[in-house]
Write a structure and sequence with these properties.
By secondary structure, this protein is mostly helical. The protein is 79% helix and 0% strand. The longest helix is centred in the C-terminal third of the chain and has 31 residues.
Amino acid sequence: MSDTPQTLRAALWMIGAIASFTAMAVAGRAVSFELDTFEIMMYRSFIGMIIVIGVAASTGHLGDITRRHMGAHTIRNIAHFAGQNLWFFALTVIPLAQVFALEFTSPLWLLVLSPFVLGERMTQTRALAALLGFAGILIVARPFGETVGLGVVTASLAAICFAITIIFTKRLTRSEKITCILFYLTVMQAVFGVLAAGYDGDVALPSATTAPWLLLIGCAGLLAHFCLTTALSLAPATVVVPIDFARLPVIAVIGWAAYAEALDVWVFVGALLIFAGNYFNIWTETQFKKTSNAQI
């Protein structure tokens, strides 16, 4: 198959990812008026668990689920559970575009944390990419002259948690199948959700209004990551990442049309710097690998 069809297929998968991430954000805001973030995560995990086990059983992949590396699974899922709860909370208190812009800083936090967890070297290129991205964070958050809002803080913390999730996912993929990783993702977070939502003995049940939205959150969450992973398997990150950043203008328009959120030009300026940092790092790493392969 030629490069053009592969790239086109990756772009189509990325459209699916963008639609799924956007749908999850809209659905998360829709159910937030009746359910707290712990309850949202609990029901989302139940739905995801049913889907993962059903698909694994029907495709003969239940044997991929092992009990190796339970410590890594636990750390990964605590980080993801915390990050997803913070993300859902941020959706309710700041504009959707601002949440997405800050979420895109996860790869930059990954650059900062990887030397400590994965033993990867912090190069000058990676440091420059991180600095560009963090300049973008300052523009998006605009902390100067006023107190940083709780929504900005929680969205930023969510991005850090997602970076930790990516790091431990990277470690787990060295020895575990995706079915195993997704199984523990949904099962562990279902347990975390039950404990967090039920600690006060008061767990709200879905209403006829919220149930369809919860189903959408559960399905869209899994589908988004499946689409993104598939796109990355078909095309290089230098192609996929720019498409993924299309999520920002899409969600900004939805926020403007559905929730009367202002189209803040500075959010786009900051996001452009965040994108520049991410893309510069990916492009440099790609060129380095091409040079290394050519020398072999």
